[in-house]
Design a protein that fits this description.
binds zinc ion, globular, eight-stranded parallel β-sheet, Immunoglobulin-like, TIM Barrel, nine-stranded mixed β-sheet, 29 strands, alpha/beta, Rossmann fold
């Protein structure tokens, strides 16, 4: 397949309207393709039909962009790229289609209170009056998409297609969605959020399955005409809330996973690990903008260091990088971006490409459960009052990744499909609200065979509750404190893990805690590390002990943090996702929990918190990467990093310079030193 070894990709973003004659009047495919070639780009994603629904090729289905005056921009870029041995991915916008929205009002999505998307003004999440959204559950819209996909695949011979926007920007109550739900369930669509209710959770699962089924439909439209064509669906919304219905299930409908992100390097490291593990084929692809920090800043370009960091971070996770550049409205580009900036970056990363694509070593796996992206405590809220911003379900796993990176604990992020084959010693379930039966089978087998499970916050399955010896009130029905500011009071057993905290100054938990209710006779099997302490009064109420805060007052003695052995393994439970805590002292508690669960690691690094140390094995050879993931530019160099691992290695080579590093061997461990780290280093160890 063409994607093998294809790591450098480009997209010219051009959702340009055509009310002004100047727009797209100066496109120059030859100049663009030549610039890509100069930069060393291996694949170009080219807009066939953007969000405007105005085609950049002579379509017979809707219409072309007027500024092109009949000129086949798509076809010409394809020809110029192929001439230069650059692969072409045809871009097609689904769901976001202004032409379809304007010409087919009955295809439009409808919000719970009856609005179409262009009715909104000045709101976030695409609600600004510019985006026309149509519903993928509408059969006529599907036939229009099918006709477009067939037309494109019959007219041109490209290597792949990118189907953008495979998600709902909002929960849709259009006639097609209502009809489908009624036919499948015999019921009206719910208008009140209620995660406590299995029926509501089933409604959401249905939406997620519908979206995955739409992805399967459009993928099939391509494959029926052009079986060799690779397919990528937009999957960035997998890291967003339940509203968008984008889940891991969509990854079964793609050749490789991909999506665009603008959230910095911790987020990139997290999502790159996840994509690496759920993609059917490698490399996956990570898209981000040339513009700093995102496309809204059309005229500012990210620094060389920042773009280099994006490229190398994707690469060490076995991922391709796709630069999203924005065309000027008149159709011109800035060739310097390619001829100078991207060329110099790819010249530096290209020699590293042959060393990657090995098996990443990890001791801790974080399970990112893409179908549990909700907070059970939103129950009772009206659909129109829901929050679009991700909550604990996203923060908890991401913050856990941050702590593991900070403490140089080798980790990976996995999806549901990877639960069957966990190689790490510890699996983390950070505030996972619902676990499906087959997922629970895999988790249970992992623990019974000797795996260690860390669980924080909600308990998403009856069997997990049972393994912990706890009573179960049903999924998303666990009792929690009324108090939204609580404390964890260390026991004698917990004094090492909770170092710095005691009865007078217990660990602050700036959220509600779930209440541990053991089944009769089970509490003796738990080793308790901390108990629940509540403030004197209810936070937020006028009655107070101290006017600015909610100091601890009621020591309940109720178990809150504990572990117990299960089969050959064990489970560690925390009554709140304390990994989301901001204070350093609190993060240190999570670090000590991980050290407690993981007495020995596959390797050790003393790199400072913003430097990520990764290691993999390829063809029997051991590699290390040090990535300086500083969020603020310019990136400051870091000096003297020591890495140590079991086994004897005689030589460590810096693969960028060929220089040999100092290596010492003692007590069964090899250690080596990196004198200075700028943006990245990849090191090969030899026996
Ligand atoms: Zn709909």
């Amino acid at each position: 397949m063409w994607i093998e070894g294809n790591y450098r990709r480009n997209l010219l973003d051009m959702h340009i309207d055509d009310w002004n004659e100047e727009f797209l009047s100066k496109v120059n495919p030859e100049e663009y393709a030549e610039a890509l070639k100069n930069a060393g780009v291996q694949a170009a994603m080219v807009k066939a039909m953007p969000h405007t629904g105005l085609c950049n090729y002579p379509t017979k289905i809707n219409r072309m962009h007027k500024g092109l005056k009949g000129y086949d921009f798509f076809g010409e870029v394809l020809k110029e790229c192929h001439k230069r041995d650059i692969k072409v991915i045809a871009y097609f916008s689904q769901v976001f289609d202004n032409y379809a929205y304007d010409h087919h009002p009955d295809w439009r999505t409808v919000t719970v209170d009856g609005f179409n998307h262009k009715d909104f003004r000045n709101l976030g999440w695409f609600r600004n009056g510019r985006y026309g959204i149509v519903c993928p559950n509408n059969e006529d819209y599907r036939q229009y998409v099918k006709a477009h996909i067939e037309e494109l695949n019959e007219m041109y011979d490209f290597e792949g297609m990118f189907l953008d926007m495979t998600f709902w920007p909002d929960v849709c109550y259009c006639p097609s969605c209502k009809k489908r739900y009624l036919e499948e369930t015999g019921k009206e669509m719910p208008r009140i959020i209620n995660w406590h209710d299995k029926e509501f959770r089933d409604f959401q699962l249905r939406r997620e399955k519908w979206m995955a089924e739409f992805a399967a439909f459009t993928t099939k439209c391509i494959k029926d005409v052009h079986p060799e064509c690779t397919v990528e669906h937009q999957m960035s919304m997998v890291a967003s809330s339940w509203i968008h219905a984008c889940t891991e299930w969509a990854s079964d409908e793609v050749t490789y996973t991909g999506g665009d992100y603008y959230g910095g390097f911790l987020q990139q490291s997290f999502i790159n690990k996840y994509y690496k593990n759920i993609t059917p084929n490698l490399p996956f692809v990570y898209h981000t903008s040339r513009c700093d920090p995102e496309l809204a800043f059309h005229t500012t370009t990210k620094s060389r260091d920042e773009l280099l960091l994006h490229v190398i971070t994707a690469l060490v996770h076995n991922g391709a990088f796709l630069l999203v550049d924005a065309i000027n409205p008149d159709g011109t580009i800035v060739p310097k971006v390619y001829n100078e900036l991207m060329k110099s970056i790819y010249d530096e990363t290209r020699p590293m490409e042959k060393y990657i694509n090995g098996d990443l070593t990890s001791d801790v796996n974080i399970w990112f459960s893409s179908h549990s992206k909700f907070d059970p405590n939103d129950s009772g809220m009206r659909m129109q009052d829901k929050s679009f911003e991700p909550d604990y379900y996203m923060n908890a796993p991401l913050k856990m990744a941050s702590i593991l990176r900070e403490d140089n604990i080798p980790f990976d992020v996995i999806g549901s499909k990877n639960l069957k084959d966990i190689k790490a010693k510890v699996l983390c379930l950070c505030h996972v609200s619902e676990i499906l039966d087959d997922e629970m089978d895999d988790i249970e087998a992992f623990v019974k065979e000797g795996g260690i499970l860390y669980v924080s916050g909600t308990i998403g399955h009856e069997r997990l509750s049972s393994m912990l010896g706890m009573e179960f009130n049903g999924v998303c029905n666990m009792e929690r404190t009324v108090e939204s500011f609580t404390y964890l009071d260390p026991t004698y057993e917990g004094k090492d893990i909770f170092e710095g905290f005691d009865e007078l100054a217990p660990l602050s938990v700036p959220m509600n805690q779930y209440r541990v209710r053991f089944k009769e006779g089970e509490e003796n099997k738990a080793k308790v590390f901390a108990t629940l302490t509540l403030p004197y009064t209810i936070p937020g109420s006028p009655k107070f002990s101290a006017i600015h805060s909610n100091p601890p007052g009621i020591h309940t003695g109720e178990c809150a943090v504990f572990e117990r052995n299960v089969g050959k393994g064990k489970i560690f439970y925390s009554s709140a996702p304390i990994e989301t805590s901001k204070p350093y002292m609190s993060r240190q508690v999570v670090k000590r929990i991980m050290n407690h669960l993981l007495p020995e690691r596959s390797y050790y690094s003393d790199a400072p918190k913003m430097v990520e140390t990764l290691s993999w094995v390829k063809n029997g050879e051991r590699y290390f990467a040090l990535i300086n993931e500083q969020e603020e530019m310019p990136i400051l160099p870091v000096h003297d990093i020591f890495i140590k691992m079991p086994g004897e290695f005689k030589r460590a080579t810096d693969l960028s310079t060929g220089a040999e590093l100092d290596v010492t061997y003692a007590d069964g461990m090899t250690s080596f030193r990196v004198e200075k780290l700028d943006v990245f280093k990849i090191i090969k160890l030899e026996k």
